[in-house]
Amino acid sequence: MKNRSLQVDPRSWHKRAVTHRMSIFRSTTRLARASCAGAILFAGLSSSAGAAEIDFDSWLAAFRTEALGRGISPATLASSFENVEPIPRVIELDRKQPEFTLTWDQYYAKVVNDLRVQRGRELLAQHRAVLTEIGAKYGVQPRFVVALWGIETDFGRITGGFNVIPALATLAYDGRRATYFRGELIAALTIIERGHVGPREMKGSWAGAMGQPQFMPSTFLNFAVDYNGDGRADIWRTPVDIFASAANYLAKSGWRDDLTWGRAVSAQALVDRGQYGLGVSRPLSDWQTLGIQRREGTTLPKRPINASLIEAEANGPTFLVYENYRVLLKWNRSTFFALAVGHLADRIGSE
C-alpha cells in the first residue's frame, strides 16, 4: 500500500486520480433490483459487490445479514448504521493523486522538526512514570512510543474527523478494495459490540485508521490494551491505553529493548551496490571491515548485532538498520516513516 516515491502512509496522503462518479452511490435502477435481487444479495453476502453492481441500500441490507451471522447484535447494527450513507469525500480521497512528492530532506524537515522534538520531550517528561512502567512491561523504550505517537497524530492533535463506520462502509461498498475494507468494517463493529467505544465516538481517518495511534480496526482487535482496567481499550482519549497499545504492538511484532533502530553511517564507494537493502544482513564487524563507519567518522559499536545497509532514497543518506527498524516497517511500510520514527526517538531521548 505504499508508494516508494512518496514514502508516506496512504491513510494520510492518497494516491489515485478522482475518476469515480458519485452518482453511482445513489443509483437505484429498479429493473436491476427487480430482476437480479436474489443474485445480488447472494453476491453481497458471499463476496463484496461493488458500487457498479448494486445500489448502496441493497448492499447494506446484505452486509447486515452477514454481520448478524458473525456475531454482531441487532442493537449494535441499528446504532452503528443509523442514517449511514456513502461519503463522496472518502472516495475522492481514496482516488486522489498527490500533487508532489517529498525528498527525504523535505520529509524529515516536516516530520522531525524542532517543535515536535520539544513537545515530545515535554510529554516524555510529563508521562515518564507510566511510560517507564509500560516500557518495562512490554520491553519497549518509552522514547519510541512517544515518537510513534508524535508522527502518527502529532501527539493526538490530528486524529481524523471521519466517523469510522460510514467511512469503512463507503470503501467496502465501492468495490476497489472491498474485501479488505469489508473485513475492517466487521472488525469495527466488533469493537463497538465489545463496548470499547460508541459508533459516534469512533472517529478516525477517511480510511478507518482510528485514535491517537491510528490503528485500523483489525489492528485494534489484535493489539489494543485496556491498561487502566476500566473495561475499554480507549485509544482515543486515555493516555495509558494509547501508550500500552502502541508498546504492545511493537512487542508482539518482535521489538527488542536492548537495541535501537539503527544509525546513520558513511558508506565507502567501494561497497558493492548488491550489499544494499534489507535482503542483506551482516554483523557490524563485517560492515566495519567493508569500510562502513558512523557518519561522524567513528567506528561502529563492537556488539554482535546484525544490520542491513539502506538508503533513505536513491543516492540519499545511508543507514545501518537493526531488527527494530523492520518492526517499525510492520507498523507502516514506508522507509521514510520508519527512519523518521527512529530519528525523532533519538532526538526526544538519549540512548
Task: Describe, in plain words, how this protein is organized in 3D.
- The chain is of the alpha+beta class.
- Among the domains are: 22-94 and 162-193, no CATH class; 262-321, no CATH class.
- It has 15 helices and seven strands.
- Helix 9 (164-174) runs antiparallel to helix 10 (178-193) and helix 11 packs across helix 12.
- The longest helix has 17 residues, at 30-46.
- The radius of gyration is 23 Å and the shape is globular.
Pick out its properties.
48% helix; two-stranded antiparallel ribbon; alpha+beta
Name the average pLDDT. 86
Instruction: Assign a percent range to the helix content.
Output: 40-55%
Order of helices and strands: HHHHHHHHEHHEHHEEHEEEHH
Structural class estimated from helices and strands: alpha+beta
Report the portion of residues in β strands: 5-15%
Gyration radius, to the nearest Å? Answer: 23 Å
Amino-to-carboxy terminus distance: 32 Å
Shape annotation:
globular
Largest sheet: 5 strands, antiparallel
Number of helices: 15
Total strands: the figure is: 7
Q: Runs with pLDDT <50, length 5+?
A: 1-49
User: Taking strands numbered 1, 2, ... along the chain, how are they ordered across the largest sheet?
Assistant: 4-6-7-3-5
